[in-house]
Write a structure and sequence with these properties.
8 strands, 4-stranded parallel sheet, single chain, 18 helices
Protein backbone atom coordinates (compact mmCIF):
# COMPACT_ATOMS: atom_id res chain seq x y z
CA UNK A 1 0.00 0.00 0.00
CA UNK A 2 1.53 3.34 -1.05
CA UNK A 3 1.50 6.63 0.84
CA UNK A 4 -1.36 8.15 -1.17
CA UNK A 5 -3.59 5.14 -0.62
CA UNK A 6 -2.78 5.09 3.11
CA UNK A 7 -3.60 8.78 3.41
CA UNK A 8 -6.80 8.29 1.40
CA UNK A 9 -7.92 5.47 3.70
CA UNK A 10 -7.35 7.78 6.67
CA UNK A 11 -9.53 10.46 5.04
CA UNK A 12 -12.29 7.92 4.41
CA UNK A 13 -12.08 6.69 7.99
CA UNK A 14 -12.35 10.27 9.29
CA UNK A 15 -15.08 11.55 6.98
CA UNK A 16 -18.24 9.91 8.45
CA UNK A 17 -17.93 11.37 11.94
CA UNK A 18 -15.69 14.36 11.22
CA UNK A 19 -16.30 15.68 7.67
CA UNK A 20 -14.66 19.03 8.43
CA UNK A 21 -11.50 17.27 9.60
CA UNK A 22 -11.54 15.16 6.40
CA UNK A 23 -11.79 18.36 4.38
CA UNK A 24 -8.77 19.80 6.20
CA UNK A 25 -6.88 16.61 5.35
CA UNK A 26 -7.71 17.04 1.67
CA UNK A 27 -6.43 20.61 1.74
CA UNK A 28 -3.28 19.49 3.57
CA UNK A 29 -2.70 16.83 0.94
CA UNK A 30 -3.04 19.42 -1.82
CA UNK A 31 -0.60 21.69 0.01
CA UNK A 32 2.07 18.98 0.01
CA UNK A 33 1.27 18.05 -3.58
CA UNK A 34 1.82 21.67 -4.57
CA UNK A 35 5.22 21.56 -2.83
CA UNK A 36 6.09 18.30 -4.58
CA UNK A 37 5.16 19.53 -8.07
CA UNK A 38 7.10 22.77 -7.55
CA UNK A 39 10.27 21.41 -5.98
CA UNK A 40 10.40 17.62 -6.45
CA UNK A 41 8.83 17.00 -9.86
CA UNK A 42 10.38 14.53 -12.29
CA UNK A 43 12.91 16.48 -14.39
CA UNK A 44 11.91 14.43 -17.43
CA UNK A 45 8.64 16.38 -17.44
CA UNK A 46 8.90 19.45 -19.70
CA UNK A 47 9.09 22.74 -17.82
CA UNK A 48 5.77 23.97 -19.19
CA UNK A 49 3.93 20.93 -17.87
CA UNK A 50 5.63 21.28 -14.47
CA UNK A 51 4.46 24.89 -14.39
CA UNK A 52 0.89 23.89 -15.32
CA UNK A 53 0.87 21.07 -12.77
CA UNK A 54 1.80 23.37 -9.88
CA UNK A 55 -0.59 26.04 -11.10
CA UNK A 56 -3.52 23.61 -11.30
CA UNK A 57 -2.93 22.07 -7.86
CA UNK A 58 -2.57 25.50 -6.27
CA UNK A 59 -5.69 26.74 -8.06
CA UNK A 60 -7.83 23.92 -6.67
CA UNK A 61 -6.30 24.36 -3.22
CA UNK A 62 -7.15 28.07 -3.19
CA UNK A 63 -10.66 27.38 -4.49
CA UNK A 64 -11.27 25.00 -1.58
CA UNK A 65 -9.72 27.43 0.90
CA UNK A 66 -11.96 30.33 -0.20
CA UNK A 67 -15.42 28.90 -1.01
CA UNK A 68 -16.87 32.43 -0.73
CA UNK A 69 -14.96 33.30 -3.92
CA UNK A 70 -15.48 29.99 -5.71
CA UNK A 71 -18.02 29.04 -8.38
CA UNK A 72 -19.01 25.49 -9.22
CA UNK A 73 -19.05 25.18 -13.01
CA UNK A 74 -18.95 22.79 -15.91
CA UNK A 75 -16.05 23.06 -18.36
CA UNK A 76 -18.17 24.87 -20.99
CA UNK A 77 -19.16 27.80 -18.76
CA UNK A 78 -18.06 31.33 -19.81
CA UNK A 79 -15.22 31.49 -17.29
CA UNK A 80 -14.01 34.72 -18.89
CA UNK A 81 -16.87 36.57 -17.19
CA UNK A 82 -16.16 34.94 -13.84
CA UNK A 83 -12.53 36.04 -14.01
CA UNK A 84 -13.71 39.64 -14.18
CA UNK A 85 -15.22 39.17 -10.71
CA UNK A 86 -12.02 37.54 -9.34
CA UNK A 87 -13.85 34.26 -8.86
CA UNK A 88 -12.32 30.79 -9.05
CA UNK A 89 -13.95 28.10 -11.16
CA UNK A 90 -14.15 24.61 -9.69
CA UNK A 91 -15.71 22.22 -12.16
CA UNK A 92 -17.48 18.97 -11.32
CA UNK A 93 -14.97 17.02 -13.42
CA UNK A 94 -11.98 18.82 -11.90
CA UNK A 95 -12.80 18.27 -8.23
CA UNK A 96 -13.92 14.68 -8.83
CA UNK A 97 -10.60 13.91 -10.51
CA UNK A 98 -8.66 15.40 -7.61
CA UNK A 99 -10.68 13.36 -5.11
CA UNK A 100 -9.91 10.29 -7.19
CA UNK A 101 -6.24 11.29 -6.95
CA UNK A 102 -6.55 10.81 -3.19
CA UNK A 103 -8.09 7.37 -3.91
CA UNK A 104 -11.24 8.34 -1.97
CA UNK A 105 -13.71 8.44 -4.86
CA UNK A 106 -15.30 5.14 -3.79
CA UNK A 107 -16.40 6.65 -0.46
CA UNK A 108 -18.22 9.56 -2.14
CA UNK A 109 -19.68 7.44 -4.94
CA UNK A 110 -21.12 4.99 -2.42
CA UNK A 111 -22.38 7.85 -0.26
CA UNK A 112 -24.30 9.33 -3.19
CA UNK A 113 -25.81 6.00 -4.21
CA UNK A 114 -26.83 5.18 -0.63
CA UNK A 115 -28.83 8.41 -0.47
CA UNK A 116 -30.65 7.53 -3.69
CA UNK A 117 -28.52 8.88 -6.55
CA UNK A 118 -28.78 6.57 -9.56
CA UNK A 119 -25.87 4.22 -10.15
CA UNK A 120 -26.07 5.05 -13.87
CA UNK A 121 -25.26 8.74 -13.33
CA UNK A 122 -21.87 9.86 -14.61
CA UNK A 123 -19.31 9.03 -11.92
CA UNK A 124 -17.83 12.55 -12.04
CA UNK A 125 -21.22 14.01 -11.09
CA UNK A 126 -21.96 11.30 -8.56
CA UNK A 127 -18.59 11.76 -6.88
CA UNK A 128 -19.13 15.52 -6.67
CA UNK A 129 -22.60 15.06 -5.17
CA UNK A 130 -21.26 12.62 -2.59
CA UNK A 131 -18.44 14.97 -1.62
CA UNK A 132 -20.91 17.82 -1.15
CA UNK A 133 -23.76 15.93 0.54
CA UNK A 134 -21.41 14.20 2.96
CA UNK A 135 -20.44 17.62 4.28
CA UNK A 136 -16.77 17.13 3.40
CA UNK A 137 -16.67 19.76 0.63
CA UNK A 138 -18.34 23.03 1.66
CA UNK A 139 -20.79 24.78 -0.67
CA UNK A 140 -19.44 27.33 -3.13
CA UNK A 141 -20.67 30.90 -3.34
CA UNK A 142 -22.35 30.37 -6.73
CA UNK A 143 -22.81 27.76 -9.43
CA UNK A 144 -22.92 28.18 -13.19
CA UNK A 145 -23.50 25.61 -15.89
CA UNK A 146 -24.61 25.30 -19.49
CA UNK A 147 -26.94 22.89 -21.23
CA UNK A 148 -24.09 21.75 -23.47
CA UNK A 149 -23.53 18.02 -24.18
CA UNK A 150 -24.34 16.36 -20.84
CA UNK A 151 -27.85 15.09 -20.06
CA UNK A 152 -27.24 14.80 -16.33
CA UNK A 153 -25.41 18.09 -15.98
CA UNK A 154 -28.35 20.43 -15.38
CA UNK A 155 -30.02 18.03 -12.94
CA UNK A 156 -26.78 17.69 -10.97
CA UNK A 157 -26.41 21.45 -10.60
CA UNK A 158 -30.07 21.90 -9.71
CA UNK A 159 -29.79 19.18 -7.10
CA UNK A 160 -26.67 20.71 -5.56
CA UNK A 161 -28.28 24.15 -5.57
CA UNK A 162 -31.38 22.95 -3.76
CA UNK A 163 -29.56 20.61 -1.37
CA UNK A 164 -26.70 22.92 -0.45
CA UNK A 165 -28.34 26.33 -0.83
CA UNK A 166 -26.04 27.49 -3.63
CA UNK A 167 -27.46 30.09 -6.02
CA UNK A 168 -27.43 28.51 -9.46
CA UNK A 169 -27.52 29.97 -12.97
CA UNK A 170 -28.13 27.78 -16.03
CA UNK A 171 -27.23 29.02 -19.51
CA UNK A 172 -29.54 27.48 -22.09
CA UNK A 173 -27.54 26.95 -25.29
CA UNK A 174 -29.74 26.61 -28.43
CA UNK A 175 -29.26 23.86 -30.97
CA UNK A 176 -28.83 26.28 -33.88
CA UNK A 177 -26.62 29.27 -34.66
CA UNK A 178 -29.20 31.68 -36.04
CA UNK A 179 -29.12 35.37 -35.15
CA UNK A 180 -32.09 34.80 -32.86
CA UNK A 181 -30.15 32.08 -31.05
CA UNK A 182 -27.09 34.32 -30.69
CA UNK A 183 -29.20 37.18 -29.34
CA UNK A 184 -30.89 34.78 -26.93
CA UNK A 185 -27.55 33.73 -25.42
CA UNK A 186 -26.24 37.30 -25.30
CA UNK A 187 -29.28 38.34 -23.26
CA UNK A 188 -28.63 35.47 -20.87
CA UNK A 189 -25.03 36.59 -20.47
CA UNK A 190 -26.16 40.12 -19.67
CA UNK A 191 -28.53 38.75 -17.06
CA UNK A 192 -25.78 36.55 -15.64
CA UNK A 193 -23.56 39.60 -15.25
CA UNK A 194 -26.37 41.41 -13.44
CA UNK A 195 -26.84 38.47 -11.05
CA UNK A 196 -23.09 38.26 -10.38
CA UNK A 197 -22.92 41.98 -9.66
CA UNK A 198 -25.75 41.65 -7.15
CA UNK A 199 -24.37 38.48 -5.58
CA UNK A 200 -20.77 39.61 -5.16
CA UNK A 201 -21.41 43.37 -4.78
CA UNK A 202 -18.86 44.18 -7.45
CA UNK A 203 -19.26 46.12 -10.74
CA UNK A 204 -18.51 44.36 -14.00
CA UNK A 205 -15.88 45.75 -16.38
CA UNK A 206 -16.18 45.23 -20.14
CA UNK A 207 -12.64 46.58 -20.49
CA UNK A 208 -11.35 43.80 -18.26
CA UNK A 209 -13.33 41.21 -20.21
CA UNK A 210 -11.73 42.49 -23.43
CA UNK A 211 -8.29 41.99 -21.84
CA UNK A 212 -9.18 38.44 -20.81
CA UNK A 213 -10.39 37.63 -24.32
CA UNK A 214 -7.26 39.12 -25.86
CA UNK A 215 -5.09 36.82 -23.71
CA UNK A 216 -7.35 33.92 -24.66
CA UNK A 217 -6.80 34.65 -28.35
CA UNK A 218 -3.04 34.83 -27.85
CA UNK A 219 -3.04 31.56 -25.90
CA UNK A 220 -5.10 29.74 -28.52
CA UNK A 221 -2.95 31.04 -31.38
CA UNK A 222 0.22 29.79 -29.66
CA UNK A 223 -1.40 26.44 -28.94
CA UNK A 224 -2.23 26.05 -32.63
CA UNK A 225 1.46 26.59 -33.40
CA UNK A 226 2.32 23.98 -30.77
CA UNK A 227 0.01 21.48 -32.45
CA UNK A 228 1.91 21.85 -35.71
CA UNK A 229 5.16 21.14 -33.89
CA UNK A 230 3.63 18.16 -32.07
CA UNK A 231 3.27 16.45 -35.44
CA UNK A 232 6.85 15.19 -35.22
CA UNK A 233 8.40 16.54 -32.01
CA UNK A 234 9.04 14.58 -28.82
CA UNK A 235 7.24 16.22 -25.92
CA UNK A 236 6.76 13.71 -23.09
CA UNK A 237 3.85 13.96 -20.68
CA UNK A 238 1.65 11.78 -18.50
CA UNK A 239 -2.03 10.93 -18.58
CA UNK A 240 -2.56 13.26 -15.62
CA UNK A 241 -0.75 16.15 -17.30
CA UNK A 242 -2.86 15.68 -20.41
CA UNK A 243 -5.98 16.06 -18.28
CA UNK A 244 -4.49 19.20 -16.69
CA UNK A 245 -4.65 20.75 -20.15
CA UNK A 246 -8.35 21.40 -19.45
CA UNK A 247 -7.19 24.08 -17.00
CA UNK A 248 -5.31 25.76 -19.85
CA UNK A 249 -7.99 25.44 -22.52
CA UNK A 250 -11.21 25.77 -20.51
CA UNK A 251 -11.30 26.50 -16.78
CA UNK A 252 -8.60 29.18 -16.79
CA UNK A 253 -8.31 30.24 -20.41
CA UNK A 254 -7.57 33.98 -20.53
CA UNK A 255 -5.59 34.06 -17.28
CA UNK A 256 -2.03 35.53 -17.51
CA UNK A 257 -0.53 32.30 -16.15
CA UNK A 258 -2.10 30.28 -18.95
CA UNK A 259 -0.58 32.54 -21.59
CA UNK A 260 2.77 32.02 -19.85
CA UNK A 261 2.25 28.26 -19.98
CA UNK A 262 1.60 28.19 -23.73
CA UNK A 263 4.60 30.42 -24.40
CA UNK A 264 6.77 28.01 -22.39
CA UNK A 265 5.35 25.03 -24.27
CA UNK A 266 6.03 26.64 -27.64
CA UNK A 267 9.59 27.56 -26.70
CA UNK A 268 10.32 24.02 -25.53
CA UNK A 269 8.76 22.43 -28.59
CA UNK A 270 10.92 24.50 -30.92
CA UNK A 271 13.99 23.02 -29.22
CA UNK A 272 12.58 19.49 -28.78
CA UNK A 273 14.11 16.49 -30.59
CA UNK A 274 12.29 14.64 -33.33
CA UNK A 275 9.91 11.85 -32.37
CA UNK A 276 9.67 8.60 -34.32
CA UNK A 277 7.42 6.62 -31.97
CA UNK A 278 3.65 6.17 -31.94
CA UNK A 279 1.62 9.38 -31.95
CA UNK A 280 -1.96 9.22 -30.67
CA UNK A 281 -4.87 11.65 -31.03
CA UNK A 282 -7.11 11.09 -28.00
CA UNK A 283 -10.88 11.56 -28.07
CA UNK A 284 -12.87 12.37 -24.93
CA UNK A 285 -11.74 11.82 -21.33
CA UNK A 286 -8.60 10.10 -20.07
CA UNK A 287 -8.55 7.38 -17.39
CA UNK A 288 -5.44 8.97 -15.89
CA UNK A 289 -4.98 6.23 -13.26
CA UNK A 290 -5.15 3.25 -15.65
CA UNK A 291 -2.10 1.02 -15.19
CA UNK A 292 -1.50 -0.20 -18.74
CA UNK A 293 -1.99 3.20 -20.32
CA UNK A 294 0.33 4.76 -17.74
CA UNK A 295 2.95 2.14 -18.63
CA UNK A 296 2.87 3.08 -22.29
CA UNK A 297 2.25 6.84 -22.17
CA UNK A 298 3.74 8.26 -18.96
CA UNK A 299 7.08 9.86 -19.94
CA UNK A 300 7.98 7.13 -22.41
CA UNK A 301 9.99 7.45 -25.62
CA UNK A 302 7.78 5.07 -27.58
CA UNK A 303 4.24 6.50 -27.37
CA UNK A 304 2.85 9.97 -26.83
CA UNK A 305 -0.52 11.70 -26.88
CA UNK A 306 -0.41 14.71 -29.18
CA UNK A 307 -3.71 16.25 -28.12
CA UNK A 308 -7.18 15.59 -26.72
CA UNK A 309 -9.96 16.85 -28.94
CA UNK A 310 -11.85 18.28 -25.94
CA UNK A 311 -9.12 20.90 -25.56
CA UNK A 312 -9.86 22.17 -29.06
CA UNK A 313 -13.66 22.18 -29.12
CA UNK A 314 -13.74 25.82 -30.28
CA UNK A 315 -10.79 27.11 -32.28
CA UNK A 316 -12.12 30.40 -33.62
CA UNK A 317 -10.74 33.79 -32.61
CA UNK A 318 -12.92 35.87 -30.28
CA UNK A 319 -13.60 39.58 -30.83
CA UNK A 320 -12.54 41.68 -27.80
CA UNK A 321 -14.61 44.58 -29.14
CA UNK A 322 -17.80 42.51 -29.00
CA UNK A 323 -17.07 40.11 -26.15
CA UNK A 324 -20.57 38.92 -25.27
CA UNK A 325 -21.36 38.01 -28.87
CA UNK A 326 -18.01 36.22 -29.08
CA UNK A 327 -18.76 34.20 -25.95
CA UNK A 328 -22.24 33.39 -27.26
CA UNK A 329 -20.74 32.11 -30.51
CA UNK A 330 -18.14 30.13 -28.57
CA UNK A 331 -20.86 28.23 -26.71
CA UNK A 332 -23.31 27.90 -29.62
CA UNK A 333 -20.67 26.70 -32.09
CA UNK A 334 -18.79 24.46 -29.70
CA UNK A 335 -17.96 21.13 -31.36
CA UNK A 336 -20.12 19.39 -28.74
CA UNK A 337 -23.24 21.37 -29.63
CA UNK A 338 -25.80 19.98 -32.06
CA UNK A 339 -24.95 16.93 -34.23
CA UNK A 340 -22.29 14.43 -33.18
CA UNK A 341 -20.90 14.82 -36.69
CA UNK A 342 -19.53 18.21 -35.64
CA UNK A 343 -17.31 16.47 -33.10
CA UNK A 344 -16.29 13.92 -35.74
CA UNK A 345 -15.43 16.78 -38.11
CA UNK A 346 -13.18 18.25 -35.42
CA UNK A 347 -11.38 14.92 -34.95
CA UNK A 348 -10.83 14.75 -38.71
CA UNK A 349 -9.45 18.31 -38.78
CA UNK A 350 -7.06 17.50 -35.96
CA UNK A 351 -6.03 14.29 -37.68
CA UNK A 352 -5.10 16.31 -40.78
CA UNK A 353 -3.11 18.75 -38.66
CA UNK A 354 -1.35 16.28 -36.36
CA UNK A 355 -1.00 13.28 -38.70
CA UNK A 356 -1.28 10.78 -35.80
CA UNK A 357 -0.56 7.09 -36.16
CA UNK A 358 -3.87 6.24 -34.51
CA UNK A 359 -6.88 7.54 -32.64
CA UNK A 360 -8.21 6.35 -29.28
CA UNK A 361 -11.78 7.07 -28.22
CA UNK A 362 -12.46 6.50 -24.53
CA UNK A 363 -16.11 5.80 -23.73
CA UNK A 364 -16.49 6.99 -20.17
CA UNK A 365 -19.07 5.23 -17.99
CA UNK A 366 -22.26 7.24 -17.78
CA UNK A 367 -21.42 9.55 -20.69
CA UNK A 368 -24.02 8.74 -23.29
CA UNK A 369 -22.67 10.91 -26.10
CA UNK A 370 -19.22 9.29 -26.05
CA UNK A 371 -20.71 5.81 -26.33
CA UNK A 372 -23.68 6.62 -28.54
CA UNK A 373 -21.77 8.33 -31.34
CA UNK A 374 -18.59 6.32 -31.48
CA UNK A 375 -19.72 4.16 -34.43
CA UNK A 376 -20.04 7.31 -36.52
CA UNK A 377 -16.47 8.21 -35.59
CA UNK A 378 -15.37 4.69 -36.52
CA UNK A 379 -16.94 5.04 -39.97
CA UNK A 380 -15.14 8.31 -40.65
CA UNK A 381 -11.81 6.96 -39.44
CA UNK A 382 -12.19 3.94 -41.71
CA UNK A 383 -12.81 6.27 -44.65
CA UNK A 384 -9.48 7.96 -43.84
CA UNK A 385 -7.65 4.65 -43.23
CA UNK A 386 -6.79 5.87 -39.75
CA UNK A 387 -6.79 3.15 -37.06
CA UNK A 388 -9.24 3.72 -34.21
CA UNK A 389 -9.26 1.99 -30.83
CA UNK A 390 -12.46 2.19 -28.77
CA UNK A 391 -11.90 1.70 -25.04
CA UNK A 392 -14.62 1.39 -22.41
CA UNK A 393 -14.07 2.33 -18.81
CA UNK A 394 -14.39 5.04 -16.21
CA UNK A 395 -12.48 8.32 -16.11
CA UNK A 396 -12.15 8.39 -12.33
CA UNK A 397 -13.74 5.34 -10.65
CA UNK A 398 -11.16 2.55 -10.57
CA UNK A 399 -13.82 -0.05 -9.86
CA UNK A 400 -15.31 0.48 -13.32
CA UNK A 401 -12.07 -0.11 -15.19
CA UNK A 402 -10.65 -3.52 -16.02
CA UNK A 403 -6.92 -3.47 -16.65
CA UNK A 404 -6.71 -6.90 -18.26
CA UNK A 405 -9.28 -6.04 -20.90
CA UNK A 406 -7.70 -2.66 -21.65
CA UNK A 407 -4.21 -4.20 -21.84
CA UNK A 408 -5.32 -6.85 -24.33
CA UNK A 409 -7.03 -4.36 -26.62
CA UNK A 410 -4.36 -1.68 -26.41
CA UNK A 411 -1.44 -4.04 -27.01
CA UNK A 412 -3.14 -5.51 -30.09
CA UNK A 413 -3.74 -1.95 -31.35
CA UNK A 414 -0.14 -1.02 -30.55
CA UNK A 415 1.14 -3.98 -32.59
CA UNK A 416 -1.02 -2.85 -35.51
CA UNK A 417 0.38 0.68 -35.37
CA UNK A 418 3.96 -0.60 -35.18
CA UNK A 419 3.36 -2.82 -38.21
CA UNK A 420 1.95 0.11 -40.20
CA UNK A 421 5.06 2.12 -39.38
CA UNK A 422 7.28 -0.81 -40.40
CA UNK A 423 8.76 -1.18 -36.92
Amino acid sequence: MNLVETYGNLIKKTAPAHPTAAFRMIKTGLYYERFRTKHLADKNIPGAYRFLNTYAVNYVLQALRTPDKTVWTNIFAPVEILQCFDLRCLSVECLSSFLSGFRIEDYFLDYAEEEGIASTLCSYHKNFIGASDSGVVPPAAFSLTTSTICDGNINTFRYLSENRGVKNYILDIPMDNSEDAITYVIEQLKDLIRVLEETFCKPFSYERLAEVIQRENESKAIYEECLTLLRDKAYPSTLTLQMYMLFATHLNIGEPEILTFFKKMHEELLAAPDFDGINILWVHLLPWYQETLQEYFNLTKDCQIQAIEMNLDYREKLDPKDPLRSLALKMINNAYTRSYDRKVDLVCELADLLEPDGVINFCHWGCKQSSGGVMRLKERMQERDLPLLILDGDGMDRRNSHNGQIRTRWEAFHELLLARKGQ
